[in-house]
Write a structure and sequence with these properties.
It comes from Stylophora pistillata. This is DUF6589 domain-containing protein. There is one protein chain. It contains 17 helices and four strands. The protein is mostly helical. The protein has a domain of 49 residues. A two-stranded antiparallel sheet has the order 1-2. A two-stranded antiparallel sheet has the order 3-4. β1 and β2 form a beta hairpin. α6 crosses α17 and α9 runs antiparallel to α10. The longest helix is centred in the middle third of the chain and has 25 residues. It is globular. The protein starts with a helix and ends in a 6-residue tail after the last helix.
């Protein structure tokens, strides 16, 4: 498909008219893969309260370092790890002595039982906001990211607002110089630097290096355990938000999650280049290229609800995987009788056969095997993780708690992301899309 889109000589060969999108189930797998790449390592067993250390502690031997080939066990394990951190953090911030106790640092109204559901939800949001503000947004570097983008925008405006010559060339900006250039590129900049005094080509970029004293102070106060677990809560809440948006079928929220995913993929550099590009192409379709009808279909036609229960949507690509599994089971029973005609008949009759068998099961009161084992209780594992977090005060900042493998762990996942470079990268691909060129 990729080759046909790139090298096709006809509209049909280039698959024109077919709108490509990132499948949400695979998008969730990618997000979990980014999280495991950052937080999971088999070399970190000696670092207490890390994912691999906890995996060894509760003996989750079905967890690996590759969510792409082992998604469900890895997802369930990560959600358990995240749940333990959220509970431990909430107990610390709100002043709980135990999970069954009352908060000492958060006021719950005495007459809460008589409150409406909306009022109760408001109280819950206030308590949750205290935890999120402490662990998810405590050391956000968003101001620096915005400053870098603003500086790059100003530089771009300077280049775009240059006065061209009558024949459309870029003149040298030194007074009295008649030299001009076809492009506003390296040759023109090198020429302008030869003048005395040289022409300042670009605005000074913001100083990203912190003063030496501030860096030394930060090293003295460094707490790798707290930084690691705070970052895990922040990234885990993003993953939960993505899964919840898909389950609710909330197309607008899913598109917003892909904006975050674009940042994560850019920060992952060469490991996620294609996903970052596909995220950008999605925004081009939603905000510029598609018609209003196409935009609504692209945004909201991403999931399916097969049982009519609110909050139980599944992504379309996962539904296709379920369909493929159903067909494979039917084909397997044919044995040597499998032919192309039989295969085609099975595929075409899948929906009808499923409906008939479901009606028969309902009529006969037959319990259907869901095809999966009942999940085991995680209460014991959660207690063990909570006990360990409490013993090490993992959710409390304490100076000079250092990790061996996750040394100098950075809370902000976008710390090494140069947003000025990303700004130029976005503009470059916007131009490519406008002239019909798309990297595949």
């Amino acid at each position: 498909m990729i080759a046909s889109m790139t090298n096709g000589f006809t509209p049909e060969g280039r698959l024109e008219g077919i709108t490509m999108q990132i499948a949400d189930w695979h998008g969730g797998v990618k997000i979990l893969g980014l999280i495991y790449r950052r937080f999971y390592s088999t070399q970190s067993d000696a670092d207490h309260c890390t994912m691999y250390s906890d995996r060894s502690h509760i003996d989750r031997r079905n967890v690996t370092n590759d969510p792409h080939s082992n998604y469900r066990p890895n997802r369930d394990f990560f959600l358990l790890i995240l749940q333990s951190r959220i509970i431990a953090g909430a107990m610390k911030i709100l002043g709980f002595d135990s999970k069954e106790g009352q908060p000492k640092l958060f006021n719950i109204p005495v007459d809460i039982a008589r409150k409406t559901n909306i009022q109760k939800l408001s109280i819950l949001h206030a308590a949750a906001g205290m935890v999120v503000d402490k662990y998810a947004f405590a050391e956000s570097n968003i101001d620096q990211l915005i400053d870098n983008v603003s500086t790059e925008q100003e530089q771009q405006d300077i280049r775009n607002n240059q006065q061209l010559t009558l024949d459309g060339r870029f003149p040298c900006r030194f007074p009295g110089c008649n030299k001009s250039f076809v492009l506003d590129g390296k040759s023109g900049k090198n020429h302008e630097r030869t003048h005395d005094p040289p022409i300042p080509i670009e605005l000074p970029t913001p100083n990203l290096e912190k003063p030496k004293k501030d860096q030394e102070k930060k090293d003295v106060e460094r707490d790798d355990m707290f930084s690691y677990n705070s970052a895990l809560v922040a990234d885990g809440l993003y993953f939960l938000n993505f899964l919840d948006a898909v389950s609710e079928g909330d197309g607008d929220r899913i598109i917003r999650q892909y904006k975050n995913m674009l940042m994560y993929c850019r920060a992952d550099h060469k490991h996620s280049t294609k996903y970052a590009l596909e995220c950008l192409y999605q925004f081009s379709l939603v905000f510029a290229l598609l018609s209003h009808r196409g935009r609504e279909r692209f945004t909201w036609n991403r999931s399916v609800n097969n049982n009519g229960v609110i909050g139980k949507n599944i992504p379309l690509d996962l539904d296709v995987e379920h369909s493929n599994n159903y067909l494979k089971q039917a084909i397997k029973h044919l044995g040597p009788n499998l032919t192309e005609k039989a295969f085609s008949r099975i595929c075409k009759s899948e929906k009808g056969v499923r409906k008939i068998t479901h009606c028969m099961d309902e009529t006969l009161k037959r319990s259907r095997d869901p095809g999966k084992q009942s999940p085991s209780s995680t209460t014991g594992d959660l207690k063990e993780l909570m006990k360990r977090l409490t013993e090490h005060n993992a959710m409390t900042k304490m100076p000079l708690r250092l990790y061996n493998y996750f040394d100098h762990f950075e809370v902000d996942p976008f710390k090494g992301l140069d947003t000025s470079v990303m700004y130029s990268w976005i503009n470059e691909h916007k131009k490519n899309v406008s002239i019909g060129i798309r990297a595949r």
